[in-house]
Amino acid sequence: MEQSTEPEPLLKVENVHVYLDSAHVLQGTSLTLTHGVLGIVGRNGMGKTTLVRTIMGLIPARRGQIRFAGQDITNLKTYQIAGRGIAYVPQGRAVFPSLSVHEHLKVAARTGGADSWTPDRVYQLFPRLAERRRFSGGSLSGGEQQMLAIGRALVTNPKLLVMDEPSEGLSPVILAHLIETCELLIKQQMHILLVEQNLHFVSSLVRDELLIMLSGRIANRVPGQVLLQDQALRERLLGVALDTGAGH
After folding, report:
1. CA 206, 36, 60, 106 torsion: positive or negative?
2. Global pTM value
3. Parallel, antiparallel, or unpaired: how do β-strands 63-68 and 71-72 relate?
4. Which of 7, 8, 137, 206 has its CA 20 to 30 A from that of 37?
């Protein structure tokens, strides 16, 4: 009997159910990320942030299983999940106002291999952070805080980067830089789970199908360019009438 040659998925979420108080927020959510970047879009309140917070162990799953690199990580502590190789860039950045840029990076840094991410390498990726390395997190602009949040995740040297609404509140210039940064990370073999409402942003990075989240589950899989070009489909799945993004 032939053995399967299919690679073990890097991340596999199977039939996950999550309740917040009495609300059944995730209702059997399932997805698989084997390599590269996986994009999830959907209207507000569909469970996208709950999903990534559950993956990171910040919200407990009532039922279902989450596997990472072949191991069950369901309901592990967040620090244990991070130690397995998942880094989280949360919605809203969550920088510490009193810590300097450099302190953020030094505190989060974890030893990696020869090509590991270090604070100095983050400064090469984001020269603006190098200029402001002694500034407090609270004094940074929204775009600079996003750079810091990504840099803080990278210095943990993860196998998977989970990004929740990274485009939120960014100017078009900073957004373009963020796209370039993500494209560079993907070329460097970084795996990314990207949760977004900005359809243009996520479609520029995800060449394959986007996952559409609706009422706590993955309801559809649609190529991003199809969503951008089909207004009726976009309105039905995302409630977006114009080509300005999915919900901004």
Report:
1. negative
2. 0.89
3. antiparallel
4. 137
